[in-house]
Design brief:
Blueprint: E1 5-8, E2 11-14, H1 19-27, E3 30-35, H2 48-57, E4 61-64, H3 74-86, E5 90-94, H4 99-111, H5 116-125, H6 134-146
Parallel strand pairs: 2-5, 3-4, 3-5
Antiparallel strand pairs: 1-2
Helix pairs in contact: 3-4, 4-5, 4-6
Length: 147
């Protein structure tokens, strides 16, 4: 059973990946892996650079956008939004549980002008509760509408 959770077509999230997960991701057609987990967040977690090298050997792109428990920055939201626009196929983002990856995706999508209620519903259908993030989603959406 895959631990990849599809949030919407072309974008999935996952808890911590290991090399065999990257093998599976490559066979499932993912073209970009987004690492939202800081190195050394937890003892024993796989090294991000080692995973990045493995992903690249498998022909996948890799981007690091680490998100700590301190929260999200505008730069992180912008980087994910740009990565999603440039991706040439399905994207898999991961962190410890998948939650931060789902949240960052929602913030990037709201910043791009997608309605927060739709994003919240998509995340909920995938098993992620964005209720506490709603004020930030609304803020990103309002900023997009003002541009």
């Amino acid at each position: 059973m895959s631990k990849f959770v599809e949030v919407e077509a072309g974008f999935s999230v996952s808890p911590q990946l290991v090399a065999s997960d990257l093998d599976q991701a490559a066979t499932q057609g993912f073209t970009l892996i987004v690492n939202n987990r800081p190195d050394d967040e937890e003892s024993g977690q796989p090294d991000g650079a080692d995973l990045a090298a493995h992903a690249k050997r498998l022909g996948m792109e890799w981007i690091d956008i680490p998100v700590t428990h301190a929260g999200f920055s505008a730069g992180q939201v912008e980087r994910l939004g740009a990565a999603l626009k440039q991706a040439e196929g399905a994207v898999l983002a991961y962190c410890r549980s998948g939650t931060r990856s789902a949240m960052l995706w929602a913030l990037a999508q709201a910043r791009a002008g997608r309605h927060p209620a739709e994003l919240q519903d998509r995340a909920a259908a995938a098993g992620y509760d964005l209720t506490g993030l709603r004020p930030l989603l609304d803020q990103q959406y309002a900023a997009a509408a003002a541009r």
